[in-house]
Amino acid sequence: MTERQDLLVASxxxxxxxEIVDTAENLATAAANIAxxxxxxDDVLRQLSDPASALYRTDxxxxxxxxxxxxxxxxLSLQGLSMGIALLVERPTKVATFREALRSDVEVxxxxxxxxxxxxxxxxxxxxxxxxALQSFERDVRALNDLLGRLDRTPVDAGPLLDALEDAxxxxxxxxxEWCATGEQPNPDANVDHDLTDLAPTIREWIDGVHATLPDKxxxxxxxxxxxxxxxxxxxxxxxxxxxxxxxxxxxxLDAHRGTLDRPPFNSDARQAYVRLRTVAELWEQTDPxxxxxxxxxxxxxxxxxxxxxxxxxxxxxxxxxxxxGCLPFVAHVSINDRIQTLLESLCEDIDSELPEVEFDWxxxxxxxxxxxxxxxxxxxxxxxDHQERAFADLATAIDTDGEIAGGSSDGSIVPxxxxxxxxxxSLSVSTGGGSGGGSTQYRGRGQQAEAYVMAGVLDRIATWLxxxxxxxxxxxxxxxKRLHSDQQERxxxxxxxxxxxxxxxxxxxxxxxxxHSTISNWRAEVDEDSFVEFPLVRLVNVTMExxxxxxxxxxxxxxxxxxxxxxxxxxxxxxxxxxVNGTTPxxxxxxxxxxxxxAKAFVRDGDIPYVIRxxxxxxxxxxxxxSQTEIAAExxxxxxxxxxxxxESQRFEEVVKGGYMNMRIE
Length: 667
Description:
elongated, 5-stranded mixed sheet, 11 strands, 29 helices, alpha/beta, 4 domains
């Protein structure tokens, strides 16, 4: 197909230059991705006028040829290939012409003469594609030089080479491409005139220079870029003994030039499956297994944690994944050879070993979600995690551009100089009417904006504590935070679920480089749109994506309203439940889940630890500059079990609970 591309394009009788180029590109893609199956299913055969071939869609959305071996006897059917081309270029009456163009017993020169007699535009096609061939060659030359630059090698000047080939036809360009691919001048085709006597020194100088500069273990890249054979890029790269830094460079280069390559270098569907696999892993790490005994809980948690973001192909994956697969720790490498399926099976085995016995098929739910991206019941395009990442990104932008952030103190801190205390003069009660705030599965983003805003305020408080408090010592801070883990072992409350402590936070607390005085004090200069949500201190205080603890944020400095209960270092770790409300003056309506209520009682009863409800005034969903219109409105500090029991009398508990939450009011 590739050698007779000009003939096939001319057979379509398309004379417009753009149509000629498009047809040639479609044929090239189809040739590079041609596939053969043993047999077509019966339901597919019933839809075909000819059972020998069909079209299929490649990973990047292009159409390619699929041949039916069951209809081809001992070899691929010329009829099937011709029919497939007719389908591809939408010329169903040209099957016989395409079959003639592909006959190996008729030379190209003879066929070109026949095409001219039939007034097929063979000369126009050769002229257009000759120019297009040079453009394609130039694009590949520049791509290879770009790789050399990324590898800190000196690119080889291609100017003289491209100037020398300015008037070359497509056959000559094809000959030189083969030379570039191997580094060795090929034997000329006896049927094609390649008079390169004058050009050979210039061509040889560039090709020799490139192959000498390109590392030996990366020579396959030149072959894949310039040859007509299909290259499985990531597999080829993995087969080489190349250090990880170089692998990352090549992956980023492949991504930057993916439009240059005949075969897509990556499997985008597999990458999205990887993202969903990580979501299931996060669900398992951040949820107490005892909470996962109901199908609805799995569905809700998947929606909460689901992310539509795509990692970079060169992003690292957990080392355990690379170990399980025996491959390099990059997204590109786990996205080939059904490796996502292997990781999924391993994860399901881990879950099965610890999950209490349940009466529903959680394994099928997880598998369907990872493979297809579907979640039982109603779906949402963006879950809580997506909204929170966007909220952190918006805050980082506001900080980076000196954007106004409302409700802060005079020194620019997000923490207000004074906050309304919902105390003895106000009441927390159950509302019989509708509420607002948490409890809904439709994540519109206001709640996540409030959470991100509060966490930024906590960072400000800790930075000020480190700079000004006499006992502001980062070592003491790490030690006291680590103590929370041991403290919860014998209690009925949790600061974080156990998997989050063991897999992330305990190693982080032992990393003095990640958590040091300078980084925390200058946190505003350290974060950006992409990194804010992963900032080490945010990871410590952020509990929003975990199921079980029953609150959103850990504030190491206690309630905003007073310092009652702080230790000698000025620290008082308290759980903070964040609620988005409308306005800054009572009354405030919000929802409290039954789990939040139970955990609040556990903190005040078993640990004598205040439970803080921090109310944040957030503008309507979709407000572009929401940070400038957001501020902490009030907070309610619950210190005793008696206070909580007074809110809901035991005999009314079933009456006020609706769908797992209670409508609450502060007046």
